[in-house]
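Collaboration report, partner site 2.

Our partner group contributed sequences for two proteins of shared interest, and the home lab folded both. The records are reproduced in the order in which they were received, starting with the first partner submission.
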Amino acid sequence: MTHYTGSGGTDGGNMVMFWPENLPEEADTMLENDPFSFAETMREEGKILWFLCDGDGDFSVTVYVDEEPPADLRSFLEHEEEHYPDVYVKGSTYFGGLEYMYRKHNPLIEEFPDMCGKLEIPDGIYQGNVYRTNIPPAFSRTWLMQRMGASRYRVLHWQQLLSKASLVGVVGVLFAFFFLVWYIWLAAVGAVLLTFVSAVLLARSESCREAIVAIDEFTKQFPEYVVLLTSQPPEAAAEPENELLAMPVG
């Protein structure tokens, strides 16, 4: 296996891939005092990867080591976001929000373990290219419809619509309490409750359970981020030292 998939999330709009063994002993203190400056320093040294992020949420990543991504995924890669001349992979790899990065301990990971996924990428020194995928919604819908079947996809679609409608409805009836007569307001509350119950029942249906599996498959095949790591030759790490030895003395 030469590719590795993981997922994580952030509440601070910054996703990173990091290796605790790469970080200095005082990393936890520095992360508390000035996480952005510390992360920028580690990024420049190739000790972490820092991903451009549109905002909070859950994200997925696939790392290809000495392997090209499949053609269907390559077609959705945006222009190269960032090139890393050196990426130092050492120990376990973690993918999550900047707020979850640590050297020795981070209580947030114990509280929210799903927000920082773990990958096992072989140790080494690599060149790295980081990409963000740009997948049209129409492609996602078509893929899921083909995977699930049109009828079951429609169940998923209605469940999502009812969930959104019930959320909007709750906010609406709270404000409407001050403006509507009581019997109309109660009717509105009943409609919102009916919408919510319908969404819950659909979420428990076999179609929606299969949809969760299909969405997970789609996320693994078409993640938000793609990282290409190319192994550097063994002598790469020794090149700086060799150059120093070759320099004239005096």
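Second partner submission, folded after the first:
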Amino acid sequence: MPHLTPESLLALLAEVETEDPIEFADLPYDEADLRNLACLHVAEFLQSGEYADISVEDREKVMAATMAKLILENLVLNARLLISKK
């Protein structure tokens, strides 16, 4: 499996965001910095021995569980925002 670099992940993220942009609202952080940090973290994880030493099936399970957690976390954060605006 070729290693994904933070730069290639940023390009993939940009493609995904064309369909589903991220709402940064009034966060006091630079959007590009946040994207870079996230992509750097993912690239480092993918290149780690911890990830490389598991089977492809287990890698898919890790990625699926990670996606599910992030989606759930996003839903919870959005629900909290909606409730706090009432």
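Feedback sent to the partner group on the second submission included the following. Residues 55-86 form one domain. The two ends are 48 Å apart (CA to CA).
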